[in-house]
Amino acid sequence: MSIHRSKSIYRALILLLCLISAPVYAQLNIEIFGGGASRIPIAIVPFADENKLQQSITPVISADLQRTGLFKLVDPAGLSPHAPVEVVYSDWANRGANALVIGRVVAISGDQVEIQFRLMDVAKKSQLTGLAITVPTAQLRMAAHRIADVIYEALTGDVGVFSTRIAYVLKRGNKYALQVADADGYNAQSIIEYTEPIISPAWSPDGNQLAYVSFENKKPIVYVQKLATRERRAVASFKGSNSAPAWSPDGKKLAVVLTGQGGSQIFLVNADGSGLQRLSRSSGIDTEPNFSPDGRYILFTSDRGGSPQIYRMPVTNTETSNAERLTFEGSYNVSPDYSRDGKGFTFIHRNNGQFNVAVQEIGSRQVQILTNSKFDESPSFAPNGKMILYATEINGHGILSAVSRDGQTRQHLSVQIGDIREPAWGPLPTWK
Asked: What is the torsion angle, in degrees rounded to the nearest 10, for the CA atoms of residue 18, residue 22, residue 24 and residue 29?
């Protein structure tokens, strides 16, 4: 049974645990479908001397840009400039390229490598931007992601998210694992593993911590764990169930769902577990809180009106009925996640018996369904608001997918055996 086939939101969150199964150390494979109507033609020349490295730079950059659906890769075969003076712009114009990426790698002392790159405007015959960074060889993929971010930002005007990370839950045998990986699925690491379920990972705003729910003590408890040291602490271990953590934008508080005071209701707690404060008070099930980017509001799912719908309430004026219903299309709308500009949100909408990722603008209440699969879950916006990460099922196999905000491009991120669930897209890195 999936969360979207259950009549009870709370019961569904528990039953979902039985579905999570995947090999812990499997590498994600990525398939891309669709693309924008007008893609930017770009040529990426293999960097000089990158073949001497254990990890080449340009294949990572190419894969990053291609996944967005916004770029058309132009084959550079037969041409290999590595500096602006070597570029014959007419050659690239004849191949239909609007932009050209060139560069080189230079070995420094020890295992340090300097990576130099330039982005050239073919029509204007000039440099758009460039970057020189020095990194240890162990961080070559991250350096490539950073370069892809710079290219993306220069050509689209939006912030790139290739340097971000994602979190998700896997299960292998009787072990559950909370994993963190690069946005492209590489460098996956298990943060914690148990024989009891782990659900609901949530990134701290600075990307240094994860909140999650663990059943290791035979009941759901909310923990916060530092990624660098693996140090963790229980921040909600009250009577009854403790679930659905969500960070405030300043990282000082968490919204959590507790049942200890009757029913399933939303509370605030300080990041160290102190200062419990009740936010919602209804006769229904209130769950899945999510803060607005400015911290003033919380979106949440509730069946207080008879069916699961998405509501919004201010963080102030607590313990009142001052909650506004936002979704009205259909009898089942759950799992809200604010867009990064605060003007809309993504959620799961039941549509003709299917459970799909949708977006809704708060002002106009206009809804757009972005997917056509049967059982989508847990949508999470990328920090630039351009893509949405979610879990889905294909042929009974649970995988991660991503869809662009306009629904034009989709990606499937899968492993060879098993399921992946509970995705959460991390924040922008601190250097941004």
From this structure: -140
Residue 324: phi and psi, rounded to 5, are -105, 130
Q: At what angle do helices 140-156 and 58-67 cross, to 10 degrees?
A: 50
Kindly give, in sequence order, each residue whose CB lies less than 8 Å from that of residue 11, ignoring residues fewer than 6 positions away: none
Report the distance separating Cα 425 and Cα 202, nearest Å: 9
Give every CB contact of residue 80 below 8 A, 6+ residues apart in sequence. Answer: 45, 46
pLDDT band, very low/low/confident/very high, at 430 (cuts 50, 70, 90): confident
Please determine, for residue 379, whether its predicted confidence score (pLDDT) is greater than 70.
Answer: yes
Q: How far is CA 30 from the centre of its chain?
A: 15
Run of H or E residues at 372:
none
Does residue 389 sit in helix, strand or coil? strand
Q: How far apart are the first and last CA of the chain?
A: 41
How high is the mean pLDDT of the chain? 89
- Whole-Å CA distances, 263 to 30, 126, 301, 313: 41, 64, 14, 18
Give the amino acid at 259. Answer: T
What does the pLDDT read at residue 320? 53
Torsion of CA 176, 182, 184, 186, to 10 degrees: -70
